[in-house]
Structures are given as structure tokens and as C-alpha cells.
Give the backbone structure.
Amino acid sequence: MLDYQTLKSETPAALRQVIREGHYGSHTAGLGKGALQANIVILPADVALDFMRFCQRNPKPCPVIAVSDTGNPMMTTAGQKIDIRSDVPAYYIYRNGVMTEEVTDVADIWTDDMVAFALGCSFTFEHALMAAGIDVWHITNNTTVPMFKTAIPTVPAGPFSGSLVVSMRMIPKDRVEEAKAITRHFPLAHGAPVHAGDPAEIGIKDISTPDWGDPAPELEGHIPVFWACGVTPQAAIQNAKLPVCITHKPGHMLVTDIPDDAEVPIINLPNSI
């Protein structure tokens, strides 16, 4: 396996190649500088329209940046030669709403009736926070950002429903408004936070025990700030209880070729197939 620090300087295409070849299977926070990272949901075509409706009704946690053709694993509008079956460091397999397996390749599960969705990820704006001198603890310490289910409901669509999931970063008290302003410029990566301050106000009982990711310390002089998270569909998938569904493992994202400051998700990639 290749070293995380070494991969920080790799281009998105080179990084995907390393992942495809099985040489890296960890989180992607801090990697692919300048490129939009994406959450992944792969499901049968007969529920794909309902899932698209779920994303359209909940754009803050589910900003759609690319959708595959039915049965085609090549994400042609997300980057050059992206194979969604192998270019994510780790996948979760859900069966009847239960996460049953963690794998690094889903070629043997992919079928010709599947559709893949790529949804923007907050890892994208972390480079901008760090460029402004705001430390991102989980990147500095090579861990996965903590993520939590909240008491905030999403708008349901078809079989998909559930609570909003958020990611948390500890931000210095005197820089919270700056962090809000910076991240607001990344609408395809969840934009500005949904809450800052007391976690209990959004239904989080204990920030030391995240539902996904790794715990982060409560730093002196900082307050917890929460952004909408693309893991939200995983809670909805659990409720939908589909026979089979594939997602990324939280924190283990697809690194696309879309610029991180893009305002329109689709890019012209004539040689992407």
C-alpha cells in the first residue's frame, strides 16, 4: 500500500489509478487538491428516479454532480476513464438495508441494470480552509472526519427517507464566520454549514462517538461546526431496504476531474470513455 503523504501530490487521474490497482484503500481527505471529491451511490435502475427525486428534494446533503448511464460503469461526466466499480478506495454493500460487506472492488456485483450517482463531498472545500490558515484536524492527524445522524428530517421520495447526516470540524471561535464564508463558495460540496455550536440543538447527544468516521477532540477555543454530508443517502438506503445497493465507505471518496470551484457539475470530457 502506498503512503498517504506521498499521494497528496498525485493528480486525480494518477490517484485513481493507484486505487484501481489496489495500492491504496484508505480515506481521501486531503488528496486530489483542486478536484471535486464525490460520495457514491449505486442502485438498481427501477429505483434510480426515486433516488434522483430524493437528491433534488435534499440538495444540501445530496448535490448531484454525475450520473451514469444504466449498466455503464464509466462515469463519463465526472472524469477521464473513471470506472465506478474500482476507482473508490472502499465500498459498502447493503442488502435489504443492512451493510453486509466492505470491499475494494464491485465488478462482481455490478449488473447491467445498475445506475451510479456521484454526489459532492465536503472534503472538497477543506483545501480552501487550510489555505486560509484554518487547521482541519482530521487531515493533520490522518483520520476520517466524524459524521453524525441528526434529528433534522430529509424530504422523502419513494422508498428513500431518513435524517440528515452531518460532518463536523472544530473551528476557532473567532474564525467561524470566515469558515462559513469560505465554504459557501462550494455549492457542489455542501456549501456553508447547517449548524455551529451546541450539538444537542440538532439532535447529536455526544460528539465523542460519531456514527461514522473517527472521533475528533474538543479543542480549547474552538466550537463544533456541522456541514451537510453526502452520507445522508446511506441512512435513507437503510430505510429503503433495497435488495442490493452499493455506496462508498464513508470518508473513502471518488476523486473526480471536476474543478473544486465548479458551479456546474458536468464537464466536457470527449476522451473519457
User: Anything to note?
Assistant: The CA atoms of residues 59 and 190 lie 8 Å apart.
